[in-house]
Design a protein that fits this description.
This protein has about 130 residues and is of the alpha/beta class. It is built from 5 helices and 4 strands.
Length: about 130
């Protein structure tokens, strides 16, 4: 990320995931250079109808971060084997291919929301595998 970007990172609360996110951001030389918003499911938690009440919290936090910290980029990091994705899926069979589609759909929904509410915001979407 070039110096012209000030980022916010949206990631999942899963304890197995924290060191992977940290190490990824460290490799990108972003430590100490981003705001963090951590919520179950990351983009799934912001966009899925089962977590609809969480969306406004994220939008308000991002809006505030844009004002306070001059954020102009959002880095979204979801992961495979996500409990929030399984919860959102309900009691139906849930294979990895179904979960990947749910994450991809969450990225598309979030992109649409960001384009509407924050048209000048840059964004990146990533899906990590915990294995």
């Amino acid at each position: 990320m070039s110096n012209k970007y000030k980022a916010m990172v949206l990631s999942c609360i899963d304890p197995r995931f924290q060191s992977k996110v940290f190490n990824y951001l460290k490799r990108r030389k972003l430590l100490g250079k981003y705001s963090s918003f951590t919520i179950a499911g990351a983009a799934v938690g912001v966009t899925h109808k089962k977590f609809e009440k969480w969306r406004n919290t994220f939008i308000q936090n991002l809006s505030t971060s844009i004002l306070l910290h001059k954020i102009n980029k959002l880095i979204v990091i979801n992961h495979i084997d996500c409990g929030a994705a399984k919860f959102a899926n309900g009691k139906r069979k849930f294979y990895e291919i179904d979960e990947i589609k749910m994450h991809e759909d969450s990225f598309k929904k979030l992109e649409k929301l960001l384009n509407k509410k924050f048209p000048k915001l840059y964004y990146e979407f990533y899906l990590m595998n915990l294995k």
